[in-house]
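Hello Y.,

Per our agreement to keep a running log of every chain we model this quarter, I'm adding this entry. I've kept the format consistent with earlier entries: sequence first, then predicted structure.
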Amino acid sequence: MSWDFSNLRSLLYCKCPQCHSGDLFVERNAYRLKRMADMNSKCTVCDEDFQREPGFYFGAAYVSYALTVALWVAVLVALTTFDAVGLIEFGFYTHVVTFLTVGITCLLVLLPLIYRISRSIWIRLFVKRK
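Predicted structure for the entry above:
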């Protein structure tokens, strides 16, 4: 399987791992929180089954954890970079509150996207493209 821009694009937009056209989720907007987690049971284009077995998406929690750790590392790198440039005054041991405030804010804002992308990555690991 070769990874090109269309594969990455369909992963980020939560499209079907088989045909790259159908939507994984009922609602396209991840920030409509009432329907954020509602998934289609099948692809509307190629009939790929998205509900493999009960508890299939529990493994997506590991992917979500990895994405969350990557987000915290990115926040730390961004804050130390801005400190080196002189845009902010940030010393990790003296400004833990700044790190936690920025990190928690970014996490809360990106949580619906992380949830959906982790499920998209998880199902992609188990579906082979025909």
